[in-house]
Amino acid sequence: NDPVIYFEHKVLYPQKGPVPDGEYLTPLGKAEIRRTGKDVTIVAYSIMVQKCEEVAKQLEAEGIDVEIIDLLTLKPFDRKTIVESVKKTHRCVIAHEAVVIGGLGAEIAATIQNEAFYWLDAPIERVGAKNIPVPFSPVLEKYMAAQKEDIIQAIYRVLHKEG
After folding, report:
1. Hey, which CATH number is domain 10-158, 3.40.630.30, 3.40.50.920, 3.40.50.1400, 3.40.50.450?
2. Residue 16 CB neighbour total at 10 angstroms
3. pLDDT tens for residues 71-84?
4. CB under 8 A, 24+ apart: contacts of 64-67
5. Which of 15, 20, 38, 94 could form a disulfide bond with 105, CB atoms 3.0-4.6 angstroms apart?
6. DSSP 60-115
């Protein structure tokens, strides 16, 4: 009696990538550092990881070095990896598709606040969906979710840069 709920994002279905040979297990509660960096930590999961990787490539041209943490599991989430990364970069942006108010991002921000407050050089930024009902129109639904530009602006804010 140890139930597990698995969420998958339908936009990720056509995605292709390497798959390990043989049996492979993803340990619960262990995040993956998808990209190492020194200027800012981004914590994300699911489709937002892909958006954050695109943002990191774009900002690399500006000399901004982004570290990306893919949570992989939400409960439990990997507190240790997040806190160690924030202590290294001194800044954090949390990006997820849920609305910002009352979401997992708030819990992650509280963890950072409790365990890495004195290492922070800027307030934690959270990026998420707009706090509105989900539109029926697919075109409008797309713009309800956090966009790459929202992530970029959050990174600029924690770096105290004009954007």
Report:
1. 3.40.50.920
2. 5
3. 999 999 999 999 99
4. 64/39, 64/40, 64/155, 64/159, 65/37, 65/38, 65/39, 65/40, 66/35, 66/37, 66/39, 66/40, 66/42, 66/155, 67/33, 67/35, 67/36, 67/37, 67/38, 67/40, 67/41, 67/42
5. 94
6. HTTT--EEEEE-S-SSS--HHHHHHHHHHHS-EEEEEEEESTTSHHHHHHHHHHHH
pLDDT at 163: 66
Q: Specify the residue for token string 């901004």.
A: 64
Q: Please report which helix (H) or strand (E) contains residue 59, including its range.
A: helix 47-60
**What per-residue confidence (pLDDT) applies to 104?**
92
